[in-house]
Amino acid sequence: MASSRPTFVIFDLGNVLVHIHPEAFLRTLGIDTPENRRYYQKSVINIVRAYECGEESTEQFLGRLGGLFNAPDAAQRHIRGHRRVFSHDDFRRAMLSIIGQPVVGMEELVRNLGARVPLGLLSNTNPLHFDACMDDLAVLQFIPSHFLSYRLRSLKPETKIFEKAIELLQLDPGDVFYIDDLHENVEAARRVGLNGSLFVGEQELKQRLSDLGLI
After folding, report:
1. Cα–Cα distance list, 37 to 67, 83, 115, 129 (Å)
2. What digits encode the pLDDT tens for the residues 138-191?
3. pTM for this model (two decimals)
4. Can you tell me whether residue 172 is helix, strand or coil?
5. CA–CA separation, 149 and 194 (whole Å)
6. Percentage, residues of the chain above pLDDT 70
7. CATH label, 8-19+101-211, candidates 3.40.50.1000, 2.130.10.10, 3.30.70.1070, 3.40.350.10
């Protein structure tokens, strides 16, 4: 961990600035059962990964979801009484339902921090989610630099996304403080030379930032 004062701070998005609830996807479609979670989980993850890596447009992504959930053999797994054919709008609503409430205390922390050091965002995300967050998540107004998986065409915990962010910033990796809620992402950032810190809560982060002389 860095002992000197960083010159740039990068935040993760999900479960650092805003709560994310993946389980809401099937619930919003009305087909949330243990069997469906087991059946669809791997396929949905793969489809979302391709979208978040910038390999597909939003319409292509929604079409792939339709191919999965509207397949001829899917009806038997859908809960009786619910729709058997889902539209693109259904999938949009289900995707957006994953985005929860802002993490308490983080807007104030980010606002105060941004007055002292430049801030960035580095996230595995997609156009649907990020556009919604830009519209509804007030904390993002204080974070001007965005390093997004679908734009950089790479996903955490690959080191490539961190390398691309550093290249764009034209900074020494050791001057960057990075905050993420997942161990594997923090470790990937550290392998590139960033000062990665695991997010466990606003109070703990505030103390770490204070130790670094940032707040």
Report:
1. 17, 18, 44, 21
2. 999 999 999 999 999 999 999 999 999 999 999 999 999 999 999 999 999 999
3. 0.93
4. coil
5. 18
6. 93
7. 3.40.50.1000
